[in-house]
Design brief:
Blueprint: E1 11-14, E2 17-21, E3 28-33, E4 38-41, H1 47-60, E5 68-70, H2 76-79, E6 89-93, H3 96-102, H4 104-113, H5 118-126, E7 133-135, E8 138-142, E9 148-153, E10 163-167, E11 173-181, H6 197-208, E12 213-218, H7 224-238
Parallel strand pairs: 4-5, 5-6, 6-7, 11-12
Antiparallel strand pairs: 1-2, 2-3, 3-4, 8-9, 9-10, 10-11
Length: 242
Amino acid sequence: MTVTWEEFGWQGLAPRVGRCRLPGWDCTVGLVVGDGSALLIDAGSSLREGARLRTEAHGLLAGARVTHLALTHPHFDHVFGAAAFAGVEVFGAVGLDAVLATESDALRTDAVRNGLDPGTAAESADLLVRPRHHVCGEWTLDLGGGLQVLLANVGPGHTAQDLTVLVPGTPEVVFCGDLVEESGEPQAGPDAVPAHWPAALDRLLDLGGEDALYVPGHGAVVDAAFVRAQRDALALRFGVSR
């Protein structure tokens, strides 16, 4: 399928791979188009934002629908829109389902603290979608048309449930979640695992290689050198030996 990404305000990264940067928290959402199926990577910060993404994806896919959803980690700006994608196969790192089941109030509070309307936050928290498929290590997802995408649990790091997505091709595209951030210093909240974060980026670089495009959870697309520099900065910041 030929996708005209720019027509919908998305950035094309490869013929079947694109992403958009959402307003507010500059959160990245990715879309990978297979043959009769499509994978969305993260779902936005609210049910309303998820519905907007569903509409845009419907246009990008020429009337087809998103069939798979990968949630990179359990923060509100990445998971609150998932309920807009009813019927999709949802993937997350092992442990993500438990976080979403037990910490919806904490996610709602964090969303409001970061500026989301309280009513919108409450609605989105009430409708949290838990993953059906739990990724431990690596999972190869066949999207048809010869396109096989790798879901890789390379963490912990930014959280204890960090999932990344590698799309083969020229170039290979790696969706990093918030393990990598370009628009600001990587955020390390109470659920971060700083001692393991640099090692998670080493695994990410091993999977993607030198020539891949690395798509941060927030900010512009970067290269391997940027990821390596951020890995070194995190090691220094948290006192982790190389």
